[in-house]
Amino acid sequence: MKSKFLLLAGLGLSLAAGLHAKSIELLNVSYDPTRELYVEYNKAFAAHWKAKTGDDVTIKQSHGGSGKQARSVIDGLPADVVTLALAADVDALFENARLIPKDWQKRLADNSAPYTSTIVFLVRKGNPKGIKDWDDLVKPGVGVVTPNPKTSGGARWNYLAAWEFAKRKLGSDDAAKDFVAKLFKNVPVLDSGARGSTTTFVQRGIGDVAISWENEAFLALKEFGADKFEIVVPSLSILAEPTVTVVDKVVKKKGTAEVAKEYLDYLYSDEGQEIAARNFYRPRNQAIAAKYPDNFAKLQLFTIDEAFGGWAKAQKTHFADGGTFDQIYAK
Amino acid sequence: MRNSHLRKFAPALLALSALLPAATRADELSDLKEALKALEQKILVLERKQEIRDEAATAAAPTTAKVTVNDKGYTLASADAANSLRIRGLVQLDHRWFFEDDGSIQNNSFVLRRARIIVEGALGKQFTYQIVPEFGGANPAIVDANFTWTLSPELGFKFGRFKSPVGLELLQSDSWTFFNERSVVSLLVPNRDLGIVAQGDVLGGKLNYSAGIVGGVADGANTTNSDFDNEKEVVGRVFATPFKDNAGSPVQGLGFGIAGTYGRAKGTNGRTAGYRTDGQQAIFSYLASTITDGPNWRITPQLDYRYGSFGLLGEYVVSTVNVRPSTTGKLSELQNKAWQISAGYVLTGENSSYNGVVPANDFSLSKGTWGAFEVAARYANLKIDNSAFPLFANPVTNISESNGIGVGLNWYLSKAVRFTFDYYQTEFERFATATPTTNPILKSDEKTFISRFQIAF
């Protein structure tokens, strides 16, 4: 009798909880290549949130070049969270529209970068142009695919990786500038984002080498076949740190602050880090990274702080109007 | 895809190789293949660049402003049409020719009747605005300056300076009346006023209503930009088109309604500055000492009917004012009345419309098309209250009644361009007095031929 009563009470409570379950929607504005990552992550987070609170959460995604995405949010796209390619693009939400606080990066661990990545080369099977390192990309007749640094975060990581390689090898910023200028002379098409570049190289058959996010390169092998493409790991590359933040003004207006914060916190959880690793993003959790040794290239990495003094300086020197990219591309 | 171009040109390559000496054939073939590969890459690059441009254009389309230039004006609108700016124009050049006047009363003359820039637009989905400066008169002036807050098709509020929602022909656009001059009925209803009006379409769009509070102006008058006295006037109009959804029915184009005003006025500004003929000659005015002091009201039943090429417009107005002959004189109520019936027929078969005829073919000498032609006829009557004479108006120099006919031809060269050729003849009657009139205008019927050359967009 008592057990029947308890069963009924439990059923009643579940029913009541179900009737009162809220339905929440979040918008995650992300950079170009993270589609597959967030398809998997969003499913996992929704299940986690349901188990934790009983509420349903649906996450809508927007993808595009990181710089372009940041501008869309500044112009009014109501993103609850942004998960962009680099900190400078997230900073723009503060600089241009005060959508987030100035110290946003301190709010989450590892400078709000729950996973990292780097830049490698994707070449056609057999590597017909013999690409081994950055110098091979400036040789005449080598078609290089990379996105537009004005719109794509990945493109800016590519640019800085090439610059630092050249500076270390050739000895000066001037020599590095010439080097990067020669590299861009070999670029036939400038897509607005990393995924567009992958399309150009992989699906449209343009170019001999794509300078690519590590995760994009591995995904291309997985999706299109290791019999068509191969990855070339350069001698030196940059540690790319895509950053994430809650967009405070938006979540305050929409009443989604709690779930948005949890959405980003969960990226640091074991499940979140596993999902990142499975999708070829380097998790901050080294124990989990160690479980996927074949998912990540082995190479020497430098950080933007070491080589360029941070994103603010790099952005101003290279990618602002009149910066080095404008100077070399206008020639 | 990468080898498609190679396969396409393979037969040509083979044919070419057959013509070459064997020793150089292999090297040349290899060079040709490399050149082809380079060309193939160039084609792929060009195709991809076009793809990216198309994607960018599609992405930008929702935010790209639209610019439209046509016979409705110059329009700049946001991609979602919620915000827009439209600039239109109206220019009317008239020629007035008076017959049998010996040139002594009114010159036969060209007149720039109207020259307006019409600026209108929308700000968000609820707010529209209109600003109309007029350059055709003696001095530039603002004709209309108002904005409307539309909450729904059933309810909106108009604020500012606008045509008072009373006279049917007066509410019609200056560009599209049957005749180039409105009838005497429009002299007894208010023109532009300042105020706030609620308006909307209800009952499935079959009933249009307006109701509001305005400063109040005299018959046929336009407000200045402020009230002339402490008093206000309420205005109201309902106009029904009960059969508008009965497609094909002879009564589909029937509309009828009634409008009215009620207010109070005090001072000389409350009485009309005078009534004029179709030729714009003054035929009635109150004595300078006459002042309004008390309630005034108007009632005007009205009708508009369109059936194919045929159009009919009729209205009747009673305008009542309370006046004193001087500041201390006895108060009297005067009632002036007017009515008109106008009809038009589009000879070229296009539909008659309250909003103007749209020619099926614009005028074009090269195509041999002439636009649209419409003939029109009108009869109008104005009756001054006999009680006005002689205390409030001089019976020697003013009419007590006028009867006017008009016949006209409208030539629509396009939707935007119209030439009108109207003949008006008005006969005058005076209040019973033996004294011959000293007003030369009243000595004989007014006979005038008015041509108008108009562009309206």
**Helix fraction bin of chain A:** 40-55%
Distance separating the two termini of chain B:
54 Å
What is the makeup of the main sheet of chain B?
16 strands, antiparallel, barrel
Quaternary class: heterodimer
Query: What class, by secondary structure content of chain B?
Result: mainly beta
Give the SSE string of chain A.
HEHEHEHHEEEHHHEHEEEHHHEHEHHH
Q: DSSP strand (E) fraction of chain A?
A: 15-25%
User: How many helices of chain A?
Assistant: 16
Largest interface between protein chains, with number of residues from each side: A-B, 11 and 11 residues
Look at the structure and give the mean pLDDT of chain A.
92
Question: So what's the overall shape of chain B?
Answer: elongated
What value does the average pLDDT of chain B take? 91
Number of helices of chain B: 3
Largest sheet strand order of chain B: 3-4-5-6-7-8-9-10-11-14-15-16-19-20-21-22
Residue runs with pLDDT of under 50 for 5 or more positions of chain A: none
User: β content of chain B, as a range?
Assistant: over 45%
The total count of strands of chain A amounts to: 12
- Report strand order across the widest sheet of chain A: 2-1-3-10
Taking the sheet with the most strands of chain A, its summary is: 4 strands, mixed
Based on CA atoms alone, the radius of gyration of chain B comes out at 32 Å
Q: Could you give the distance between the termini of chain A?
A: 87 Å
Fold and architecture overview:
The complex is a heterodimer of chains A (331) and B (457). Chain A is an alpha/beta fold and 331 residues long. Chain A has 16 helices and twelve strands. Chain A has helices at 2-20, 35-53, 66-74, 87-97, 109-112, 153-170, 173-185, 194-203, 214-224, 248-254, 257-265, 270-278, 286-289, 304-308, 311-319, 324-330, and strands at 23-31, 56-64, 81-84, 115-116, 119-124, 144-145, 209-213, 229-232, 236-238, 243-246, 282-283, 300-302. Chain A has a four-stranded mixed β-sheet. In chain A, strand 1 (23-31), helix 2 (35-53) and strand 2 form a beta-alpha-beta unit. Chain A is globular and about 75 Å long. Chain B is mainly beta and 457 residues long. In chain B, the strands form three sheets. In chain B, strands 3-4-5-6-7-8-9-10-11-14-15-16-19-20-21-22 form a 16-stranded antiparallel beta barrel. The model of chain B has no long low-confidence stretch (mean pLDDT 91). Classes of the chains: A alpha/beta (331), B mainly beta (457). At the A-B interface, loops of A face helix 2 of B.
